[in-house]
Predict the 3D structure of the following.
Amino acid sequence: MSERSDRTVGTTGLSADGDRVDRATETFVAHRNLLFTVAYEMLGSAADAEDVLQETWLRWVGVDPDTVRDQRAYLVRITTRQALGRLRSLRRRKETYVGPWLPEPLLTAPDVAEDVELAEGVSMAMLLVLETLTPTERAVFVLREVFALEYDEIAEAVGKNPVTVRQIAHRARSHVAVRRPRGTVSQAENRVALLAFRRAVETGDLQSLLDLLAPDVVFLSDGGGVVQAALSPVVGADLVTDLLTVGLGRIAGSASLQSAQVNGHPALIIRIGGEIEGVLAVRTEDSMITGLYFVRNPEKLSRVEQETALRR
C-alpha cells in the first residue's frame, strides 16, 4: 500500500473514532443529571458523585454506543458499579470522621420539590436513613424505589441474580420503613419550623421554635473536625433547647439567613460576615421538629451557591 493510501486509511480511522466519541459524549451529557443523581443518592457526597461520573465516562467512552441497545440502562449500570466501589471506601473514611457525618447539601431547583419521590430520596433525613443500609441494599433500594428500575436491570447493575435482588429489596424496604419519617414529608411544616428558627435568630425570641421541638428531637452538626460542631448527636428536647439557647445567642445580630431549597426541601443558608457559616435542614413529623441537621464543614458547602440539577 502506498504512503498516500496509508494516510487516507489513517485519516478515515481517526474520523470514525472522532464520530464515535462525539456520539458517546452526546449520550453521556443527555443522561448526566440522572447519573449524578444515582451516584449522589448512593453516596451522599457530591464530590464523590462527580468522581464516579468521571470514572463512568472513562469506561463509556471506550464503548461503541451503536452496539448498546439501551444506553440509559447501560450508563446507570456502570454508574452503580462505580458508586458501589466508592461507597465501600467512603464507609472506611467515615470510621475516622470527626463527629457526626451529614450528607453534602445541594442547592436544588423548584422542580425537584415537585417530584415527591425524588425530593424524599435526596432529603437529608432519607440520606441518613440510607446510611444504615449495606452498600448493596442501598443500591437496590435507590434503583428500585427512586428510579423504578426493573429487578432484572438492578441485578445486572449490582452483580446479583433477580431472585436475590428481590429479597434484598424487601429487606431494604423493611429496614427503611421503620426509620423514615411517617407519611409524606410536609414542605409546609418544614417551612414553619425554619421560620420559627429564623425568627429566633432575628428577634431573640426562641419560644416559638422551642415549642416545635419533639420530645425525642435529635440535633446533628457536621464540622468534620475543621470547624467547631457538636461531636456527638444531641438528643432530647431539653438538651437541644440548651444548645439552641447558647448557639443562637452567639449569632443573633451578626448572622443573615437565606431561605433556600436544599436537597428538594426548605432549608436555611446561614452567613456571617458574608461568608457561609452553614446550612440548616429539618425533619418534621406531625408538625413537630424531630431532626435538626446543621452542616458546617466548609468542604461540604460548595454546592449551595449554585443549583445542582437532579433527575430521575
Observations:
- Confidence is low (pLDDT under 50) at residues 1-10.
- The first strand starts at residue 213 and ends at 222.
- Residues 3-43 form the longest helix (41 residues).
- DSSP finds twelve helices and six strands in the chain.
